[in-house]
Amino acid sequence: MKELSLHILDVAQNSTNAQATEIRIEILEDLFANVFRITISDNGCGISEERLNAITNPFTTSRTTRRVGLGLPLLQAAAEQCNGTMTIESAEEQGTTVRATFEHDHIDRQPLGDIVSTLIGLMTGHPAIDFVYHHQVNDRGFTLRTQDIKQELDDMPISDMSVVNFLTEYIQENIHSLYEEANV
Predict the structure, then answer these.
(1) Rounded distance, CA 85 to CA 64, Å?
(2) Number of folded domains in the chain?
């Protein structure tokens, strides 16, 4: 994967497959501490301890269509390549948290990429799931909750093009504002 937003998409898709009703995606960019951290948590079915111990093995997958699962091993490799780590915390029937930490300025750290399209795809592709997106750059943060948006929409679907256009612009503007305020 060439950008971190694709790793986020992969892990979030795992959450949708785990019957999560809420998925939190958090990005922390602490330029002073030189940390770039991605946290994805859900309230899905969780992972057994046995499976959790083998989950970063590429030949461990819950898929029935193929016998390899490269998503988490690739994220782990990307983090470790940038002097970082990846951790997975999970309990059956309680959900899962995947956290990947990178050196922010490491030359091999993949760019965040098109996080806006990733978020829009997740939100419109899984309208029954409540997504919470939080992006923080230094001490400034931006949070988006699809549950709040859905309440304002009444009966209009989140996949309606006018809503998609609004959300795209809203997310872009807020992320741009975070970087602008941090002088990045």
Answers:
(1) 29
(2) 1
Instruction: For residue 54, count CB atoms less than 10 angstroms from its CB and return exposed for 0-12, middle for 13-18, buried for 19 or more.
Output: exposed
- List, edge to edge, every strand of the sheet that includes 95-103: 85-91, 95-103, 35-42, 22-30, 130-137, 140-145
- C-alpha to C-alpha distances, 7 to 74, 99, 154, 167, 181, nearest whole angstrom: 8, 11, 32, 21, 26
CATH classification of the domain holding 24: 3.30.565.10
d(CA 62, CA 58): 11
Given a cut of 70, whether residue 136 has pLDDT beyond it is yes
DSSP 134-157: EEEETTEEEEEEHHHHHHHHTTS-
Mean pLDDT, residues 77-96: 95
- Judge whether 86 and 71 are in contact, CB under 8 Å: no
| pTM confidence score | 0.91
| pLDDT, mean of residues 78-87 | 97
User: Which residues constitute the domain of residue 93?
Assistant: 4-181
